[in-house]
Amino acid sequence: MGKASKSLKAVDPVWHRIGEEARLAVADEQLLGGLVHSSILHHATFEAALAYRITLKLSSPEMSAQTLRQLVDDAFASDATLGVAARADLVAVYERDPACHRLMQPLLYFKGFQAVQAYRVGHWLYSQGRHDLAYFVQMRVSEVFGVDIHPAAKIGQGIMIDHAHSIVIGETAVVGDNVSMLHSVTLGGTGKEDDDRHPKIGDGVLIGAGAHVLGNITIGHCSRIAAGSVVLSDVPPCKTVAGVPAKIVGEAGCAQPSVTMDQLLSESI
């Protein structure tokens, strides 16, 4: 067991707070008792609770819950960074989504958070050379959550995908840390070439609903992509782009758009 895993088990404020919220939720609504106990209060660690949720959502007649749970547990036990990234994602959703009022909500209810954590398990499998299992996880995430992320894609931490319907992220895409995106975003290629063909998204980027970023292009850190835009060329850092095809329409307007989540194009930019 790595040092990161040991320290998280010793002092884990995120998991402690989730437990407190869960007990209050059961006290307020007893009909949720079974769900909350099985998903949160029954587990000793955040990783165990997350593994349970992923297994519950993705198991099927093609792969039993027992088999899938062992697989997910192995991933978390082998790579402590999966739990670290999950906590960062959870806090990101809580801080950026005005509809999220408790840390336990993404774990229980938000498919964007759950889909990203399942992708992380698939990515771990892919990095271990277990490609077919990784593709199985990708398939189930797409079927269950409507989020299609290739297991070879590289995604940082502190990721918030709001609503998370019809998200597509291609094989050679790279997404930095502290990125936020809305529903119906595509990070796709532009042809049939089997090479580095997908976008590279910098840290702190905000991608609006329905935006399509296509090709092996670079989106500079802390930039904004307006809703419905089609981005076909590089975007410099700290800029706002909009339109079809997208063009620079001004500065980003703040230090880190992905955190403020301000999607309005004001006259000042």
TrEMBL record:
It catalyses: L-serine + acetyl-CoA = O-acetyl-L-serine + CoA. The keyword Repeat applies. Pathway: Amino-acid biosynthesis; L-cysteine biosynthesis; L-cysteine from L-serine: step 1/2. GO terms for molecular function: serine O-acetyltransferase activity. Its EC number is 2.3.1.30. Gene3D superfamilies: Hexapeptide repeat proteins (2.160.10.10), serine acetyltransferase, domain 1 (1.10.3130.10). Keywords: Acyltransferase, Amino-acid biosynthesis, Repeat, Transferase. Residues 14-118 form the Serine acetyltransferase N-terminal domain. Pfam families: Hexapep, SATase_N. It comes from the Bacteria. GO terms for cellular component: cytoplasm. GO terms for biological process: cysteine biosynthetic process from serine. CDD domains: LbH_SAT. The keyword Lipid biosynthesis does not apply. Belongs to the transferase hexapeptide repeat family. This is Serine acetyltransferase. It comes from Dinoroseobacter shibae (strain DSM 16493 / NCIMB 14021 / DFL 12).
